Amino acid sequence: MSIRVMLVDDQVLLRTGFRMVLAAQPDMEVVAEAGDGVEALEVLRSTAVDVVLMDVRMPKLDGVETTRRICSEPAAPKVLILTTFDLDEYAFSGLKAGASGFMLKDVPPAELLGAIRSVHSGDAVVAPSTTRRLLDRFSPMLPSSGKEPEHKGLERLTEREREVMMLVAQGLSNGEIAARLVLSEATVKTHVGRILTKLGLRDRVQVVVLAYETGLVRAGGGAV
C-alpha cells in the first residue's frame, strides 16, 4: 500500500517539485495539497493522509500551529516540518507541537524520500546529533525553575527506563545506548517504546524535549 503524502506550502513551484519526486516512487503518492494551514486542516477532514510535509512560514495559519492542531487529533498523520534555515526557532516549535522531525527545504531527494518512509514507519527523522544541537541552541526558551522534574509519567519509569531516557536526551542513538549500558539494541528499542507509552509521547524527539523541559538534562547534553 502506498504512503499517502500531503504537501502543505504556499509556494506552488516548491510543491510541484516535491510532487514530481514523490510521484516517481512506487510506494508513495501525493493525495492532497494546500497553500496554507487553514486549507490544510480543511482538506484533512475529508482526505486520508499518512505523512504531511509542512512548511512553517505560511499565510493565514503557520505550520507550527497547523502541526499542533493536526497532532492533537486521534490517529493523526505524521508531520515533517520543512524549514529554510537549519535549527531555526520554527523547527524547534514544530517538534514541540508534535512533528516527527524537521528537514531543510533543499534536502536531497533521496534523503527526503528516506525521511518520509522513516516517519511513516514510526521513527523520528532528526538525527541524534542534530537533536542535541537543536536543543542546546534553544534551551533558553525552555523553563528552568530549578525545581524537581514534574511530569506524571516520569514516576512510572523504572530505573533502567529513566537511564535510557536520559541517554536518548543526550543525543545517543539506540546503538550507542546499547554499548553504553551493555544491552542489545533490541532491548534498548523495547525500553524506548515503553518510555513513549508511559509518557504519552509520539517519538524520541519528544522524549528529548520533555527531558530538557523537566530539567532531567541540561543544555550541553549533561544529565542532572
Essential attributes:
224 residues, alpha/beta, five-stranded parallel β-sheet, 10 helices, 5 strands, 47% helix, globular
Task: Provide the fold topology.
Layout: E1 3-8, H1 12-23, E2 28-34, H2 37-44, E3 51-55, H3 63-71, E4 78-83, H4 89-97, E5 101-104, H5 109-120, H6 128-138, H7 159-169, H8 174-181, H9 185-199, H10 204-213
Parallel strand pairs: 1-2, 1-3, 3-4, 4-5
Helix pairs in contact: 2-3, 3-4, 7-9, 7-10, 8-9
What features would you describe in this structure?
- With 224 residues, this protein is an alpha/beta fold.
- Helix content is 47%, strand content 12%.
- The protein is globular, with a radius of gyration of 18 Å.
- It starts with a strand and ends in an 11-residue tail after the last helix.
Helix content: 40-55%
N-to-C span: 45 Å
What's the oligomerization state? single chain
Briefly note the structural class of the backbone.
alpha/beta
Main sheet properties? 5 strands, parallel
Summarize model confidence as the mean pLDDT.
81
Number of strands: 5
What is the radius of gyration computed over CA atoms, rounded to a whole number of angstroms? Answer: 18 Å
For the biggest β-sheet, the strand order reads: 2-1-3-4-5
- Name the helix and strand elements from N-terminus to C-terminus, one letter apiece: EHEHEHEHEHHHHHH
**Spans where pLDDT lies below 50 across 5 or more residues:** 143-149
Shape: globular
Task: Work out the helix count.
Answer: 10
